[in-house]
Design brief:
Helix content is 36%, strand content 24%. By secondary structure, the chain is of the alpha/beta class. Strands 8-7-6-9-10-12-11-13 form an eight-stranded mixed β-sheet, sandwiched between helices. It is globular, with a radius of gyration of 26 Å.
Length: 511
């Protein structure tokens, strides 16, 4: 694969799309043809099981070999067989190339990777990327092509899953790549703008949108927010080139700034490009610097006028981090001395910056324009349930509620226990009373928190019918405690249960 290859045009993308769908070239169709093990292996960039599963002739097998496995297919099988492709137009537009094999056979091969991708509401979409690059990042594409454009990977699907999906007037996909985030945004944004420093990436975005039947986006070339000038948006999303590396080798992953400066700059500049009430959501890497609290480091990134929720999902020491991204570029398959030299360069860079580890996670900003912003920075390496877009939206709605309600107002409020929250009693078998009670979320962030007897009783009664104060008065009578003292000490616990999503204001809209 070479990034110098001419990319297809989208003149007849609608006809190609119709043919792909008619042949069953969809996420569900692939699963049926390949079977679960081979389908899962593709996500790990392993193609042998899929090659075995597509030995038989047939339209779907031919398409899988062409567009996913990048194998040549006999021209006659497409021209005379039941594949249904508008072959002349597909060849003319550059999706396929006709050529002679070594044995003289007349074959066609794909110029780009086309991968079926299921949308959140069952849509049949297609992500177009460079050959062999449908899965990248930690999967290890092993490409040294500077301008390579990746397809669907774990990072891109993570960002798509955490993005708030309320209808908006305008959305910006910054660093669009193959257009996955722009494609999602096109479903709920009236106007979508996609930017990338790599012009080829924007061409892939155009192809992804066209082949998926999505509206066109405004495509702008440039770095960070430079292409959009002073424009503002209701939603900004970015899966940026966040890798902290000693030099910018690969455009798709290396930001070209020192340390984590690219992610910091992106977050700091986002505030002035957000409309009031808008969201900016990023994936990012950040340094853990010797003698510095990583949480304070990230708090300093948050722009004025914005609330923030920053979640650290993983931490790697500098050796693990260097090895991960050296494998990503295929350096582990190169000359041993060259690999050692690259490894040394990474460690020297980290040592010079005092970096002891690197964190990875999500950063969400919400433009609230409040004098008392809420900035939550936490470590959460535990399993979560995607999609989390509604969980993110609800988090900031709760921050607004808590900011507007003092303790007296909380006691006058009515609350509901959030659906899917269960209570667990922990203690010695046979004991009359539990040692402690745990409330556990079975959806979203899947948090768990210890509560005392009063907290458990309070949460269990919350159905929106009584005020918090009246519930506490009833509990005080049951446990024979002074109701005034109980009212004085409980608002802090109520505030925690609301903040972490166990309780919601009774007037809150449910998804």
């Amino acid at each position: 694969m070479s990034t110098a290859t001419r990319l297809p045009v989208s003149d007849h993308a609608a006809e190609l799309r119709a043919a792909l769908l008619a042949a069953g070239f969809t996420a569900d169709g692939l699963l049926d043809l390949l079977g679960a093990p081979a389908y899962a292996a593709l996500a790990r960039s392993e193609t042998v099981p899929a090659l075995r599963a597509t030995r038989a002739d047939g339209p779907l097998a031919h398409l899988v070999r062409l567009f996913l496995l990048q194998q040549p297919v006999p021209y006659a099988a497409l021209a005379d067989g039941p594949a249904g492709l508008p072959l002349d137009r597909v060849l003319a537009d550059g999706w396929l190339i006709r050529e002679k094999a070594a044995d003289g056979a007349d074959t066609v091969r794909a110029t780009v990777d086309v991968r079926p991708y299921g949308g959140p509401d069952g849509e049949d979409w297609f992500i177009v990327s460079d050959l062999g690059c449908a899965v990248g990042g930690a999967g290890g594409i092993g490409s040294r092509e500077e301008g390579v454009v990746l397809g669907v990977g774990g990072a891109s699907t993570t960002l798509a899953g955490i993005t708030v999906r309320t209808p908006v007037g305008s959305a910006l996909d910054l660093g669009s790549g193959s257009g996955i985030q722009a494609l999602h945004a096109a479903q709920h944004a009236t106007r979508v703008t996609a930017t990338d420093v790599n012009p080829r990436a924007l061409e892939f975005t155009r192809l992804t949108l066209a082949l998926s039947g999505a509206p066109e986006a405004e495509l702008l070339t440039g770095s960070l927010f430079e292409p959009v000038g002073d424009a503002t948006y209701d939603l900004i999303v970015s899966n940026p080139p966040f890798v902290i590396s000693p030099r910018a080798r690969l455009t798709y992953r290396d930001g070209g700034m020192g340390g984590d400066d690219l992610c910091r700059t992106l977050v700091q500049q986002a505030g002035r490009h957000l409309n009031p009430g808008g969201y900016a959501q990023f994936l990012a890497n950040w340094q853990h610097v010797e003698g510095e609290d990583w949480k304070d480091r990230l708090r300093s990134w948050v722009p004025q006028g914005c609330d923030a929720w920053i979640v650290q999902r993983e931490v790697q020491d500098i050796t693990q981090y260097a090895e991960l991204w050296l494998r990503d570029a295929g350096d582990h398959r190169a000359d041993a001395a060259a690999y050692a030299a690259h490894y040394e360069a990474w460690l020297e860079e980290f040592e010079a910056r005092g970096t002891k580890a690197v964190g990875f996670g999500w950063i969400t900003l919400h433009r609230s324009d409040t004098a008392e912003p809420s900035i939550v920075v936490e470590e959460w390496p535990h399993p979560v349930e995607q999609p989390l877009g509604e969980t993110v939206r609800a988090h900031f709605a709760r921050q607004d509620f808590l900011r507007e309600h003092d303790d007296a107002a909380l006691l006058e409020g009515r609350f509901r226990l959030v659906e899917e929250v269960v209570q667990e009693q922990v203690g010695t078998p046979g004991a009359e009373d539990p040692e402690h009670v745990v409330l556990r979320q079975n959806r979203g962030m899947r948090r768990a928190t210890k509560v005392d007897t009063v907290g458990a009783g309070f949460a269990g009664v919350c159905d929106g019918s009584l005020t918090a104060g009246r519930i506490l008065d009833a509990i005080a009578q049951l446990v024979q405690e002074d109701p005034v003292l109980l009212r004085d000490r409980t608002p802090e616990a109520i505030r925690m249960l609301v903040e972490q999503g166990f309780l919601e204001p009774a007037g809150a809209a449910r998804p």
